Amino acid sequence: MFFCNTCSQPLCDICREETHKAKMFARHEIILLSKKTKEVHKRCALHGEQYIMFSTEKKVMLCINCFRDMKVESRAHCVDLETAYKQGCNKLDQAVQSIQDLQNTVKEGIQVLRSLLVEIRQNSEAEKDAINQLYDSMQQRIAEKKKELLEEVERQYQVKEKLFKAQLLNLNTLLPTLHVNLVTCSAFCSSANKFEFLNLSFALMERLHSIAQKQHPLRPTQGSQINTDHKNEYANNTLQVKSGLLFSKRYTCAFLLPIYSLPSSHLLDNQDGVVWSIPFRTCSPQVTFLSTANTFASYNLPKSARPTPHVQHLRGLTCTGATCLFFFFTGDPSVFPGLFSFS
């Protein structure tokens, strides 16, 4: 492409060879278009004079006439073109460095999110396997609870997967934008002269700053854990007896004492906690207990260990029913002296 300074219009190769070969165009000044575009940046559009100064206040280049027309206080913000060029290069380098740092952080975020997607799939499968293994060891009554837990796992997985994929899509969309801006900066720095640089670089730097300052989801807002607290949920749902009473998961063992009639009981305050006071003179000498494995067994109390006619105070006694009395212990059964003996 060419440019005719006389006609003030650009010319293609065909126009130059055919149209401007006539005698009437013989004195026209024809130059390369690239040279013309560079010349535009060297001269003031208002006065036609060559630029000699740069205003750091207004971010514009000034010719001698522009400089004379400025207010005195504004002249203090003017520097020569070489100084302005060096200052601009330093600022652009800082802006590019911030974008490069952001690019590296985005890449790290993408890797983290991809690994999190793999981890949540693995953790989801592991959690499902754990739930299924626990389910297989229990009775039919936990079928509904199993379904609820698996739905909760799937819900957590779907929520986390949706969140991570949304963040991953955001970062994958951001990365090409950062790359394009870096390539643009690189091309601009390598091809622009100082006049073009000072005329265009500050708009570019503002764009880079706006990208760098914008909030980006660089780190995942949640972890990859999939947790339903399934063991406790299963325990609460499955440790039941025919009376419909629910054993607390806090205890290691539970004992069931059949009695012929339930006497009135009262609650005592004790420094060790709540203590139920129950008369045991009507209790059966046979003790049936329920272990943590949900199996029943019987133990015949020896005569020396049977309840005495007077009132016995039992620590940790909790539930009462129409025909059964439940109490629990959390450690050594010796906390019940004189009541039980274990071989």
TrEMBL record:
Q: Show the GO MF annotations.
A: Hsp70 protein binding; transmembrane transporter binding; zinc ion binding
Q: What is this protein called?
A: RING finger protein 207
Does the keyword Transmembrane feature in the UniProt annotation?
Answer: no
Domain B box-type intervals: 1-33
Q: By its UniProt entry, which InterPro entries does this protein fall under? A: RNF207 (IPR039320), Znf_B-box (IPR000315)
Q: Which UniProt keywords apply?
A: Coiled coil, Metal-binding, Zinc, Zinc-finger
Q: Which GO terms describe its cellular component?
A: perinuclear region of cytoplasm
Which residues constitute the signal peptide according to the record?
A: none
